[in-house]
Write a structure and sequence with these properties.
Layout lengths: L16 E3 H10 L1 H9 L8 H25 L4 H6 L3 H14 L7 H22 L3 E13 L14 E15 L3 H4 L2 H10 L5 E9 L18 H17 L7 E8 L7 H13 L8 H24 L5 H10 L7 H8 E5 L10 H25 L13 H5 L8 H7 L11
Helix pairs in contact: 1-2, 1-14, 3-5, 3-6, 6-12, 9-14, 10-11, 11-12
The structure holds iron/sulfur cluster (SF4).
The site of iron/sulfur cluster (SF4) has 14 residues, from helix 2, helix 15 and helix 16.
């Protein structure tokens, strides 16, 4: 009698999913901190940076939404920009974040966030919003996951999912005169040299100042922020380029929001970087000195308003934020320092730089999976996860520092000892 061989149902297969910012950049900051905050969902005690980043993203996104509605209703670009009321947008985003439990506890941080939001919705919006094609574009792709080192395998997976969200995709059509004369487009053209008539540039907002140039040789497991962000936008460029409605993606653009309105402390850092030759976009000592004086005076006036206010007075922060404006630093320099253009193709050789960026992130996923595997097999967290105490600021804000061996190694007092002869 004929028999039929029935196949058995394959086991459940879950594709590990990694987000570019939350997972890969989080792990590179410090593996152990990532394990606690991202995988273990340990809430942060002082989510200062989280508030600022979310606030600026929210403000620029809401500003563009209003602009877009006006443009679609037939208004000119100038009329659409005039319809954005900075105070209303700031209040809307502030209460939206508060509803999610994200609050700026420091009145000064709030004031500064508001002041930078005003520049974002004013000077920046004028040159950026007319170029925006879409904001908050979700991306996804699958990549090969190499076998883990012996003794660390803990799940069946030969691929992983890479996910990300592009803040802004621009659509640049050089045949349109208002686009061709746009200062952002000019900077991109100057950097890339040759560009097609119609192309895209993707933009990622960073709630920080422009970092100093990286030191000469990168350390493999601790790449500089300069390199990490480059890989991030190049990976976005690759994933975006695969979407059906995409035009050729020619560059990624990192927008360092703090450079839109630098404070005295930012200018002090700039002064040091210029003196040490560690920045690609500097200014003269004489100019920096003059700007510093204005910034310090502005801060004094803003602080006086905050000091006179009672409690956490949002209205005082709103008023004080106006005292930080206008910036004494010329707009064209602020814009140049705020924008870091990352060409997708090497301008000298024309070779795509995407494969190297993808390979770098494949390695990071392999490191994370290896740490997970070590934890799975050993049952201990601290030993299983790589740590990175290279950045003092990261450790100082880390909630794990009281029990982290690397932090105590850095800070514990060392008694004089006798060196035993061999
Ligand atoms: S204290 Fe520093 S090294 Fe330790 S877990 Fe926190 S960030 Fe990492």
């Amino acid at each position: 009698m004929a028999t039929i061989k029935l196949s058995s149902k394959p086991g459940v297969y879950e594709l590990p999913s990694y987000s570019l910012t939350g997972d890969l950049l989080g792990y590179l900051r410090c593996g152990l901190q990532y394990r606690y905050t991202r995988i273990g969902k340990m809430p942060s005690r002082a989510p200062v940076q989280l508030w600022f980043g979310n606030f600026i993203h929210g403000v620029l996104d809401e500003g563009f939404r209003i602009y877009d509605v006006e443009r679609k209703a037939g208004k000119s670009s100038a009329e659409a920009l005039a319809a954005i009321d900075a105070d209303v947008v700031i209040e809307t985003i502030e209460s939206r974040l508060a509803a999610q439990g994200l609050v700026a506890w420091e009145p000064w941080l709030k004031t500064l966030g508001y002041a930078r939001a005003r520049v974002g919705l004013g000077e920046l919006a004028e040159v950026l919003f007319p170029l925006i094609h879409r904001s908050e574009v979700r991306l996804t792709g699958a990549r090969e996951l190499k076998p883990l080192p012996p003794g660390t395998a803990f799940r069946e997976a030969d691929r992983y999912e890479m996910v990300g969200v592009i803040d802004v995709v621009t659509d640049i059509e050089l045949s349109k005169p208002e686009v061709a004369s746009n200062p952002i487009v000019k900077l991109v053209e100057d950097c890339l040299g040759k560009v097609p008539d119609h192309f895209e540039v993707i933009i990622d907002y960073k709630g920080s100042r422009r970092p100093a140039l990286p030191p000469g040789k990168p350390t493999p497991k601790h790449p500089s922020l300069w390199d990490q962000y480059e890989w991030q936008v190049l990976t976005y460029a690759d994933l975006r380029g695969r979407q059906p409605d995409a035009h050729p993606v020619k560059a990624g653009l990192l927008l360092y929001v703090n450079e839109l309105l630098p404070l005295a402390s930012d200018l002090e850092e700039l002064r040091k970087e210029v003196a040490e030759g560690k920045t690609d976009i500097g200014a003269s000592e004489k100019d920096i000195k003059a700007w510093l004086k204005v910034c310090r005076d502005q801060r004094k006036e803003a602080s006086a308003i905050l000091d006179a206010a009672t409690g956490r007075d949002g209205a005082a922060a709103m008023k004080a934020s106006l005292n930080l404006l206008p910036s004494p630093v010329p707009w064209d320099l602020r814009l140049k320092r705020a924008l870091r253009i990352v060409p997708v193709e090497d301008p000298a050789t024309g070779k795509s730089r995407i494969p190297d960026a993808l390979k770098s992130f494949d390695d990071v996923v392999e490191w994370i999976e290896t740490c997970r595997g070590r934890e799975f097999h050993s049952g201990t967290i601290i030993k299983a996860w790589d740590r990175n105490s290279a950045d003092e600021g990261t450790c100082a804000a880390c909630d794990a520092r009281t029990w982290c061996p690397d932090f105590s190694n850095e800070t514990k007092p060392r008694l004089p000892a006798v060196k035993v002869a061999p």
